[in-house]
Write a structure and sequence with these properties.
With 447 residues, the chain is α/β, with parallel strands linked by helices. The chain has 13 helices and 21 strands. α8 packs parallel to α9 and α12 packs parallel to α13. Bound molecules: S-adenosyl-L-homocysteine, iron/sulfur cluster and FE3-S4 cluster.
Length: 447
């Protein structure tokens, strides 16, 4: 038996979909009457975990150890620990055995958290890693609590692509799309709760498919056009996209829809066709580059972002050089790059030609040097431009606020505007990771 928790904390790791899930779990526990507090003081700590790379998984076990040790040192009762997210899905039984946690709940069944916590409090450690399609959304509170100016909204879950290195198809299940009306209703609830910008989320968000109110089939482009008509919603973004689901309709939305921000995260992973084939990406280098050209033709100022893996099994120096050539050709505004991490149960983990850590380190450094150079060039090229900035929060200096440009650059500026305001700002200088902006003044503040 453990005392029924009265306070809770949720710690999310991994991608934005986990951040969204973490927010929904927090709303769910608050609706049960528990109060949110810091993790160090909570009766219940939910670790919302990520399984994507090895380090992410190891972090879960060290976090569990730290939470228990901190409780011992301060003489508190050890908190109830619930492991949620993708490690829970992949290694549920192992976590229970190895770390003796109270609750394990997967990313598609966390709406059952209150029941599982009650079971654990009654002395029965509880595990639920079912993958019921969409059940959780219907079971979560419909009203959204106070939303940040920039809010996340999951519209699509799961992945059917089975890239040979990736655990997501196993941890999140098959691709499913939430229904049109559920999404529009939740978007409205987020706007009512204060959101000015919504980022539509999915592991393959551009694979979203559904029907509108009239029963007409729609893709993500159509959904974006509908959300564009929502009063009070100033900005729309979406992530993450797969190149093969980038339809003409979606590309045209970038041309036509003013509230759709000029930013596209479109991972390519590698620049060599042989490596792309071994990764089971189902697209070629050239196909990706032609797609980028079409997107740029529709929206010339679009900022491009990507994900890269270096040291995939069998990757030669010449093949890696093709990745460097590809980034030169694209000129990314920002990007994420990773050393290949063999994941249990994925085909690539058993492939011949695993690349040594030293070679991976060295390749990652060269790739990141190129990506940093391109990011800086992109930022430098925007100096002098005037654009809308959505103010999100206070900065470190007195009077300083932080916000985002349409191209997802962080912008800091001195202003008396508050979070949620949209300002006309001139970008005056570029740092390595952010821009300095000049607020053009009260009179030009946008609604
Ligand atoms: N669905 C998205 C991204 C999912 S995971 C997509 O397909 O683009 C986010 C990123 O993590 C991937 O794009 C990939 O670059 C990286 N990643 C996934 N599995 C990995 C692994 N085993 N090792 C290293 N990086 C990995
Ligand atoms: Fe993973 Fe590939 Fe699916 Fe992205 S598309 S989630 S990298 S399997
Ligand atoms: Fe990680 Fe799961 Fe997201 S593995 S990246 S939290 S889908």
């Amino acid at each position: 038996m453990k005392p029924t928790p009265k306070t809770f904390a949720v710690k999310s790791f991994g991608c934005q979909m986990n951040v969204y899930d973490g927010e929904r779990m927090a709303e769910l526990m608050a609706a049960q009457g528990l109060s949110p507090v810091e993790a160090g003081e909570a009766d219940l700590v939910v670790l919302n975990t990520c399984h994507i790379r090895e380090k992410a998984t190891e972090k879960v076990y060290s976090d569990i150890g730290r939470l228990r040790k901190d409780a011992r040192v301060t003489g508190r009762e050890a908190p109830m620990i619930a492991v949620a997210g993708c490690v829970a899905q992949a290694e549920g039984a192992e976590i229970v055995a190895r770390a003796k946690v109270d609750v394990v709940v997967g990313p598609q069944s966390y709406h059952r958290l209150p029941v599982l916590v009650a079971d654990a409090a009654a002395g029965h450690p509880a595990l639920d890693t079912e993958l019921p399609a969409l059940a959780k959304f219907g079971a979560l509170p419909a009203r959204r609590r106070r939303a940040n100016p920039s809010a996340f909204l999951t519209v699509q879950e799961g992945c059917d692509k089975f890239c040979t290195y990736c655990v997501v198809p196993y941890t999140r299940g098959a691709e499913i799309s939430r229904p049109w009306t559920a999404i529009v209703d939740e978007a409205r609830a987020l706007v009512d709760a204060g959101a000015k910008e919504i980022t539509l989320l999915g592991q393959n968000v551009n694979a979203w498919a559904g029907e509108d109110e009239t029963g007409r089939p729609q893709g993500l482009g159509g959904l974006i056009r509908a959300l564009d008509r929502l009063p009070g919603l100033a900005r729309i973004r979406y992530t993450t996209s797969h190149p093969n689901d980038m339809t003409q309709e979606l590309i045209e939305a970038h041309r036509d829809v003013e509230s759709l921000m000029p930013f596209l995260h479109l991972p390519v992973q590698a620049g060599s066709d042989r490596v792309l084939r071994a990764m089971n990406r189902h697209h070629t280098r050239d196909g990706y580059l032609r797609l980028i050209d079409r997107v740029r033709a529709a929206r010339p100022d679009i900022a491009l972002s990507g994900d890269f893996i270096v040291g995939f099994p069998g990757e030669t120096e010449a093949e890696f050089a093709e990745t460097l050539g590809l980034i030169d050709r694209v000129g990314y505004a920002q990007a994420f790059s990773f050393k290949y991490s063999p994941r249990p149960g994925t085909p690539a983990a058993d492939m011949a030609g695993q690349v040594s850590p030293e070679v991976m380190d060295e390749r990652l450094q060269r790739l990141q040097a190129g990506l940093n150079r391109d990011q800086h060039a992109f930022n430098a090229a925007t100096v002098g431009r005037t654009c809308r900035v959505l103010v999100e929060r206070a900065g470190k200096l007195p009077g300083q606020m932080l916000g985002k440009s349409p191209w997802l650059q962080s912008v800091h500026l001195l202003t008396d505007a508050g979070a949620g305001d949209l300002l006309d700002v001139t970008l005056v200088s570029a740092g390595p990771n952010s821009m300095a902006g000049l607020d053009l003044g009260e009179g030009r503040r946008a609604a």
